[in-house]
Write a structure and sequence with these properties.
Elements: H1 2-12, E1 24-43, E2 49-65, E3 68-84, E4 90-104, E5 110-116, E6 128-135, E7 139-145, E8 152-163
Antiparallel strand pairs: 1-4, 1-6, 2-3, 4-5, 5-8, 6-7, 7-8
Length: 164
């Protein structure tokens, strides 16, 4: 609830409001912590299989006297079994880059902003002042400029993760 109230206050005291643009304001970034989130992926094991094939070869000797038939069968059966072992269950791991930005908002609220790389772009922000725009009541987009050309490189979306 504190986060929502803080962002609502910040949006209310925004610096610039344009007809099509979202409200913007400045924050002071104190520092950024880069870290990795470990994701464990569980893979089920598989059962083994076995297949047996048999071939039978033989001969029949028979003698018929009157209504009686006597005989014997000589046969040999050869079977071959093919087995494929199963695979045991296992766990693989994947790391996902994370950024936690420690910032001070205009109302002097100390906020931790969080970004997870993957579907979005995150940056390890240097200490300094950044222009941001509110993205609803739980996120902001931080304007990131090139140090060399001073041109806007993009807006990076960070979620409000708490306070410090």
């Amino acid at each position: 609830m504190k986060k929502i109230a803080g962002l609502t206050l910040i949006v209310a005291c925004s610096i610039a409001v344009f007809a099509k643009d979202k409200p913007t304001f400045q924050i002071e970034v104190i520092g950024t912590d880069a870290w990795q989130r470990d994701v464990a992926i569980y893979h089920a094991g598989t059962n083994g299989t076995s297949n047996t094939n048999c071939d039978t070869n033989g001969s029949v000797n028979a003698t018929t006297i009157g209504n009686n038939t006597n005989g014997n069968v000589n046969a040999t059966t050869n079977c071959t079994t093919t087995s494929t072992p199963g695979n045991p269950a296992y766990v693989s791991h994947r790391s996902i880059a994370q950024e936690s930005v420690h910032a001070i908002f205009p109302n002097n609220q100390h906020v931790t902003l969080w970004c997870q790389a993957g579907f979005r772009k995150c940056a390890n922000l240097a200490a300094g002042t950044y222009q941001v725009e509110a993205e609803g009541d739980k996120a902001v987009r931080i304007y990131v400029y090139s140090i060399v050309s001073h041109k806007l490189m993009g807006k990076m979306k960070y979620r409000v993760a708490g306070s410090w």
